[in-house]
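Budget justification aside, the reviewers requested a transparent look at the raw inputs and outputs of the sequence design task funded under Objective 1. We therefore reproduce one unedited record. The lines immediately below are the structure tokens for a 385-residue chain.
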């Protein structure tokens, strides 16, 4: 089988699984076929939250009969409320920073995955702020690792400086808050599972950790003591990120919030049980975030949530890889992922297996929020609209 046949087969088996295990309806049988309900399109109060996870998970550990026990929340609670795309292709570079940057610009970026450089093309945050005249407090990124600290804003001259999102790095906050006793938090400060050769320093930025401590106190309204006390109760970097994201929702109520998780990528270390634990944790954290949406007055009933992995992982069959551990081969399994959208304006319980691309996310967000991603190379998922 060639790659596109394998990829279509993956999309179809996810589709069939979702229909039988979560009761989703087939989108192509619906009149109109649009997951986004008409008339609710561009509401001023509309909020969008995007959760991406770095280190996709394979179907056999998630959306397949043998994987379903790892994703009880996504399967029984979120998917039935969602419009679910089972065949999203990533045709770019399969490194987490460059792939997440591509998701955020709607262009397959070619930047060096291991350097802290901004994306070449305008980000969704810049389109959103420029076209809709939104202040910087209206969009935030919560990102997992050092490498992501430039993702909020491109180098593009007509956008760029002053129009991006502030990137908040929970690990930096923790490292600033715990200066002197970081040993207690090794498990939360672990950064980048991809290659042992790349070990970014979590050193304090120039001027000490003042910036981070200000973010804690001024923005998140958290004292160092309270933050540290909370950090002692969480078990992973993604749990810490979700805590920060929820504080942001309460304190700043951004209309465009982007959360990137990374726990699943522990798979690179080769321990299958840690990889599966991370999938279960991610499943739980996504559901918790959705509960927070319902309980926060600023978000309840006017929020659309998108959940998608940045890409997949290698198939067991591919001789060039090592199964779940990496995403090196560029095979169909590592490129064929999925996306679910749920909440305001989204049709519930529908599954679509038409191929879409990772770079279609930004134009789709533009269509529902009312901005024009002029330089994006994707297109709005048309049967969304
Ligand atoms: Zn990875």
């Amino acid at each position: 089988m060639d790659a596109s046949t394998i990829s279509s087969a993956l999309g179809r088996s996810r589709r069939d699984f979702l229909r039988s295990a979560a009761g989703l309806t087939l989108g192509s049988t619906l009149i109109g076929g649009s997951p986004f309900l008409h008339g609710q399109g561009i509401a001023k109060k509309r909020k969008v939250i995007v959760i991406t996870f770095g280190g996709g998970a394979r179907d056999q550990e998630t959306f397949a009969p043998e994987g379903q026990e790892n994703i009880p929340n996504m399967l029984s609670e979120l998917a039935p409320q969602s419009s679910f795309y089972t065949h999203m292709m990533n045709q770019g570079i399969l490194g987490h920073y460059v792939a997440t940057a591509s998701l955020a610009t709607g262009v397959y970026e070619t930047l060096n995955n291991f350097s802290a450089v901004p994306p070449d093309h305008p980000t969704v945050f810049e389109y959103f702020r420029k076209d809709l005249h939104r202040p910087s407090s209206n969009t935030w990124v919560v990102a997992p690792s050092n490498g992501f600290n430039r993702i909020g804003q491109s180098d593009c001259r007509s956008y760029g400086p002053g129009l991006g999102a502030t990137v908040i790095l929970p690990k930096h906050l923790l490292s600033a808050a715990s200066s002197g006793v970081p040993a207690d938090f090794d498990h939360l400060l672990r950064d980048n599972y991809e290659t042992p050769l790349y070990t970014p320093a979590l050193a304090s930025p120039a001027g000490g950790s003042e910036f981070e401590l200000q973010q804690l106190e001024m923005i998140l309204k958290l004292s160092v003591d309270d933050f540290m006390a909370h950090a002692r109760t969480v078990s992973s970097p993604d749990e810490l990120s979700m805590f920060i994201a929820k504080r942001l929702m309460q304190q700043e109520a951004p209309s465009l919030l982007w959360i990137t998780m990374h726990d699943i990528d522990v798979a690179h270390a080769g321990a299958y049980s840690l990889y599966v634990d991370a999938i279960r944790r991610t499943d739980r954290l996504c559901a918790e975030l959705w509960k927070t949406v319902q309980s926060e007055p600023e978000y309840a009933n006017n929020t659309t949530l998108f959940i998608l992995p940045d890409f997949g992982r290698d198939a067991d069959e591919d001789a060039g890889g090592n199964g779940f551990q990496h995403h090196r081969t560029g095979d169909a399994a590592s490129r064929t992922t999925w996306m679910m959208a749920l909440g305001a304006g989204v049709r519930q319980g529908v599954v679509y297996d038409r191929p879409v691309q990772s770079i279609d996310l930004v134009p789709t967000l533009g269509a529902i929020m009312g901005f024009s991603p002029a330089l994006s190379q994707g297109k709005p998922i048309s049967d969304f609209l």
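The beta strands are 25-26, 47-53, 82-89, 139-142, 166-168, 256-261, 303-309, 336-343, 350-352, 356-357. The mean pLDDT is 89. Computational costs for records of this kind are itemized in the attached budget.
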